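Protein in question kept underneath.
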Amino acid sequence: MEETEIAHAEPVSTQPINGEEEYIAEQPFREHEPLLDLEGQYGGKQELAHRATEPAASRTKTFVFLAAYFLMNLSLTFYNKAVMGSFPFPWILTAVHTGSAALGSSAFLMFGHFQLTRLTPREHLVHFMFSLLFTLNIAMSNLSLAMVSVPFHQIMRATCPLFTILIYRLVFSRRYAMITYLSIVPVMLGVGLATFGDYYFTALGFTLTLIGVVLAAIKTVVTNRLMTGRLRLPALELLLRMGPLAAVQSLLYSVLIGEFSEFLSFVNAGHLTMERVLTVSGNGLLAFGLNVASFETNKLAGALTLTICANLKQCLTIVLGAFLWDVPISPMNGAGILLALAGGAWYSSIELRTKARANG
């Protein structure tokens, strides 16, 4: 997808017509107006000094969403672990997550917190493909986990920042300062050491894992482009448009692999108690909050920063697992965690200095 591939919406009146749902007019696009491209430290023919790399929101807002992303991401990881023990239906749970995103964003729409942007047929197709990418990314991750060991899966996922950089370089002609590249290395190496264990994989498992990592990087970049490109969609609208499609796709996949039949047997046996319904509902609510925080963090801090955060989250998960379940941490694992955290701090300081210089 080229940088300006997604066509901008046609400007329309903000007044309701014949009682139909009110749409917001998109901001008019001007040929030489810079987009909110947070990833372009060096943007081809455009100089960094002439680009608006800092979003309109304050740094405080960015830090708040980053903190919320970390907190809810860690919480949902352990919440999922608890839920899956009594509700072993990952694809139906994924449908609950995406369905919750649709319901939650619909509620915000009803109360007037955002308005829908009128899209062209091509833009609707883009959102459908985005929902398919979202579902396919999960499918690849689940399929590959059955063919590779968990440590190998984690170390492959740690390379997501590398593929994010490659996508920006090859597709959008964006390049980073050498010091940014260097700061990412200790993060990836640290995650590798922190998750070091029994590496096992089949040829097909390696291929599927690699495809899953590439899809995850593409999904993160596409999310950023949808929210900072010409349309500049708010997180809630993006979730509203993507959520129902992804929920239906997840349910269809659960039918194809036989999981839905197992779920019906689970219900008929009386195992779906009110307590489990409330537990799964709470899980969906937390997932909705995480999706909002994730999308907003992507918009404010950038796709690369989000992949770095995901790597650091892996390390923090190991630390919390050691406290909560007495999971042993070897000296090598501990050194990896410290290395990754140090790399994350280094990367953050570089980003802050880069944006400070850009804002003059």
